[in-house]
Design goal:
Chain lengths: 210, 166
Amino acid sequence: MSDLDQMLQEQVRHHTPTALLDFATVRADAVRRRRRRRTTAYVIGSAVLAGSAVTAAALLDGDGDGGGQITAGPSSSPSSSPASGVTRTGELRSDSDTVASCAFSYPDTLGERGFAFDGTVTAIEDETTTFRVERWYAGGEGDSVAVPLRPTEAQFEVESVPVYAPSYEIGTRMLVSGEEDQGTTFVWQCGFTRYWDAATAADWEVAFGG
Amino acid sequence: MDQNEGVAALYQQACPPLIGLLTVLGGSRTDAEEVAHDAFVKLIDHWRTVGTYDDPAAWVRTVAVRLLISRRRRFRVAQRGLRRMSAGEPLSVPALGGESVDLERAMASLSVHHRAVLVLHHACDLPLDEVAEILGLPVGTVKSRLSRARAALSPMLSDLEGSDHV
């Protein structure tokens, strides 16, 4: 055992409580906390949207489950996710999940976005995600693009057992749109960035006049 | 034993060390307690399946670690959204004395993602593939984060080079 093992284990022991609340109290508190956070935890904007022309009011998902729209099992036109085997569909959610309102509605104003592309994730590093671009709909060119975006955790269930997976991973194909503002790229949430499927990709083609 | 009794019994046994682990991982005793409690409450709904596992406490630990990381991420995002405050988050942990103060200071300089890898591997003695599974990461990412975390702590540790972990 290394010194680091010993020191960290000592830290864990140091912070291990010697007394516990009874479980009935813990259960009641957890339920109360969840209700309170679901009804009151509003924040303004999100990291991705802050500073852009859009101000969104986001409702934090209070129970700590993330909240991306992830489903397991086959889908008619899924975005493939080779690393985890999870099939993702629909809208990509940001860290401040459950967007309550956005200044622009999807898909009505989709065609007005400054950039939009169909891309497959090739790298995720800190706050930046790199895509291999399959198709530019607007506002860009080239085979690859890096944008300020990062995955969050989301929950889905398989046979009633909760399984957590990143909202996207290397290999996930997405439809991404947003704006450039004074040299800074903002990927839009609120439905404007989604998991790829053939039908939605066709809609985007139409929206951008393809 | 019904599900409430089963979970309550496991709670008595496994919750204290889980809170210790989460406190070191996340830097906040309050968050650690809430997350640990939430994980055990979730277990009630899944006891029929998880109760048959060899080590149901490992299920709770996985759920709790993921909840904590998710919570810390949202905390950072909320901070940035309100004030663009992306500076390091101070740990609210009462320190041990001596070299442990240095360790906690060094730990505080790491992101929760790096602390998670470090704590799960070194304090829980979990192999890298198991750490990767808990965190939902490729093993290569776990290795690189572990290397970076250990490098950050290396000035205060003399035996890292001789460690037989990796």
